[in-house]
Amino acid sequence: MAPCKDLPKSSKVDAPAGRLVALLPGILLCVLLTLLSIGIQEAEEHIFQHPYVEALVIAILLGMMIRSVSTTSERWKVGIAFSAKQLLEVAVMLLGASISFGAILPSGLFLIAAIVGTVAVTLAVSFGLSRMLGLPTKLSLLIASGNSICGNSAIAAVAPVIGADGDDIASSISFTAVLGVLMVLGLPLLIPLLELSATQYGILAGLTVYAVPQVLAATVPAGIVSTQIGTVVKLVRVLMLGPLVVGLSLVAPRLRGEVAPGKRINLIKLVPWFIIGFLVLAGLRSLQIIPSSVAAPVAKLASVLTVVSMSALGLGVDIRVLSKAGGKVTIAVTLSLILLLAMSLGLVQLFK
């Protein structure tokens, strides 16, 4: 009977290995879609000099295409679910290493205040518009975050914090991505129409275009001054993602139903582990304990993990759900973008 005593020990050793074997098929499928998505983005960069559709969006679309023609078996689902949740949480944590709050100071206090004010107002109004259209709270938060800060990257970062499901994430990213491309193509037309200076157009592009590569695509035709100013404004806007993610992490437990209304929140217990990691890495980066030589590859890793997670989300999206919410989401994103554009046009008049 003695050998029976060794069984618990053996099962403990085998459990992690068994878990890994179960996860591998789904993870490898998501990684394969990620590599294909990154390859398509690089092809865009080679042909057009700038990617108009990011790998993150391509990954969701590829996943949705696969889901629409076939259903994933149980063999794949565990790894896909792991990629959609845990890997996205790791990506959000690693994103903190690229956030340096001290980097915004050289931009000028007035411009910083203007950017912060624009982000705050568009966040509130975009959320309000989405809720007025009858969209769920979590989806409204995703649309507001993406529109106000940095499009798809903000949506991906906010999603695990508020516990958004895959359909909401895919819906908000898909429609935001389309309008983001239209902004890149249409914004330069405003230069002669409104007689914008290089400085004014740079600020306008930095405030309204969603992704940093898209800012470059929108400003390069206008000259180096617009490109430099647009990039700086956009980076300051991206830094607002830090306070937003932290703020949402404090109210997210109520959104997820983990805390009853009126009950006090224990911040230490309810702030997600990846938000704590995000804050620690952001603090280390701001203090320059994490040097640029380390921050750059960590940020790249975070970007790749985000694409892997988006592949997983696409594989879990029911296109029928998207079609039902499509009209309202399109209206919400469009109105939010019009609001952002109008505010930014008013703001740039204060600069020459």
UniProtKB/TrEMBL annotation:
Which Pfam families does the UniProt entry name for this protein? Answer: Cons_hypoth698 (PF03601)
- What topology does the record note for this protein and the membrane? Multi-pass membrane protein
Highest taxon in the source lineage? Bacteria
Q: Has UniProt tagged this entry with the keyword Transmembrane?
A: yes
Query: Where is it localised?
Result: Cell membrane
The principal location of this protein is membrane
Annotated transmembrane regions: 20-41, 47-66, 87-104, 110-129, 141-163, 169-191, 203-224, 236-255, 267-288, 294-317, 329-351
Arranged from A to Z, the UniProt key words for this protein are: Cell membrane, Membrane, Transmembrane, Transmembrane helix
Q: Is Transmembrane helix included in the keywords of this UniProt record? A: yes
Q: Which GO terms describe its cellular component?
A: plasma membrane
- Endpoints of the signal sequence: none
Return the similarity comment: Belongs to the UPF0324 family.
By what name is this protein known?
A: Sulfate exporter family transporter
State the organism named in the record. Answer: Bradyrhizobium zhengyangense
